[in-house]
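Folded chain entry —
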Amino acid sequence: MQYSNKDGSKTPACVDARRAERAAHRAEKILFVTSEVFPLAKVGGLADVSAALPVALRAQGHDVRVLLPAYRCVKERIGDCKAGPVLDLVGFDTPAQLWFAELEDGEVPLILLDAPALFDRPGGPYTDDEGQEWPDNAARFLALALAAAAIAAKRAMMQWTPDVVHGNDWPAGFVYPLLRSRRLNVPSVFTLHNMAHQGLASLQLLERYQLPPRLADVKAMEFYGRLSLLKGALVFADRITTVSPSYAEEIQTGAFGYGLEGVVRQRAAVLSGILNGVDYDVWDPRVDRHLEANYDSDTLYRKIHNKRILQKSFGLPAQEDVPVLGFVGRLVEQKGIDLLLGALPRVAERAQWVVLGTGDPRFERDLERTANEVTRFSVRLGQDETLAHLIEAGADMILMPSRFEPCGLNQLYGLRYGTIPVVHAVGGLRDTVCDTTEQSVGRGKATGFAFDGPHAQHLADAISRALEYFAQPMTWRRLQRTGMSLDFSWGRSARAYAGVYADAVQGPGGAPPPCRSSTLAAPLLQSFDVSENLPAGE
C-alpha cells in the first residue's frame, strides 16, 4: 500500500497553493445551500459539514449564509427569527416565506425557507416517522432550489446577493439547471458527499412545475427514464468538489460511480477532492465536555478511565488489558456491517466489542442476536452523542470497514483521541490513515490498520494485526501519539474551498465570464441550451 505524503496520507486538499493564495485576497459572499445542519437537522455527516465549514470560511473573511428548509424539527429548536420576504414559487400552490436567524453559536447567519406544506412534517429531512421516504422529496427540494435561485437573482428582496452559490448533495440538484436556465451571472459550486444517493424522480415533474422540457434530455438530467437531481448538479455546476481526493478518483469508475461515472469523467477538469475537517472545539479529548477524564498525548494514561466508563456503560467487564473495539455509525450495507459480522467469529474472543448506531432493521436484528450469543459483544441501537464521544475516547480501536467511504469522520476523531482506526482502504479512509508496517512504524508515520477489498477475512486479518501491535505497549503508544499530532482542522479545508470559489468566479481562462456559458462544462453540454420554454418570473 503506497502513500504519497510525508505524513503517510494523500494530499488532504487537491487545490494547489497558488489558488488558495489567490482566493485569500478576495472575500466572497457565499450562499451555502444544504438540507441538513447540526444541531437543527441531522441525518449524516452533511449536517456536521454544514455547521463547521461556514464557520471556518467566515473566520477567513468570507460572508457565508446558510439556506436551509424550515423543517418541523428546525422550528422546534431554532431561537429568535426575523421575518423575511414572501416568495411565489412557480408551480407551487402556496407561497413560501424566508426567515432570518443564526446558528446557535451566533457565528453564521441562517436563511430558513418556510413552506409548511412541504417541510412542517413529522420525521426527518427526507423520511417520515416510519423511516419511509417522502414521495414528494424532489418537489420539496425543488422549492429550496427555487428559493436559492431567487436570492441569486436579486428577486428575494434581500439587500444581499451571493458571489457564489454552493450547494450540497442531491437535494441541491435543481439549483444548477435553474441558475443556468435563467442565465444568472452567479458562479456555482457543488459538493458531492455520497454518490449512492441520487434523488430520483418522475420526468413528469418537469411539466408539473413548469421546468424546461429539455432537462429530460440524456445530456441533462435524464437517468434511465427518470430525473436524477444529482446528475443535474454534476452536469450544470461550474465547479464540483467531493470530500476526499481518493473519492474524486473512485467516482469516475464503474465500481463507485453508480451509473454516473461517465458524467463525472466528462467533468473531471472542474472536479476537486477536498477532505472534510474536524471541529476540534467539539472533538478533542483535551476539552471534550462529554468526558469525565480529559487527556492529551502527554497524559494518555487518563484514557483508561474513559475505557472503564465505556465498559460499564455497555455492560462489559472492566478489564484494562483486554482491547475494546468500537463502531459508531449508520447500520447500513455501505458501512460494512456484514463484513464486521462475518469477521467476528474469527476474532471475537480476543477483544471486547461495542457498537452504537441505527439503520437497516436487518442489521439491527443481526447485531442484537450477536450480542445475545457473544458475551464480549454489546450493541446500543439509536443515536447518542455522549456515548459516541465516549466510544472515541474509551475504545482502543475504532472500526470502519466501509464498502465505500467518501471521507469519513470517525477515523479522524479516532486519530485525535488516540483510538487507532482499522479501516477499509477506500475514499477518505485511504487518504487519512497510514497502514502500520515495520517500515511505516520506523518512519514514524503509522497511524492505523488498513485492508484492501471488502471481504470479512481481510477485515479479520487487519484486526488480528492490530491486536498483535496492541500487545506491544511502547509501539502502540507511538501509533497513538503520531495520530494525535495530525491536523485535520477545518481551516485547511476552508482555504481549499476558497480556492475553488476563486476558480468559479474567474471562469475559464482566468477571466470573469459575462454569463455562465456552456464552455464551463464538458462536451456533453456543448450547444445544449436549457433556457427555452421558461416560465416568466420566479
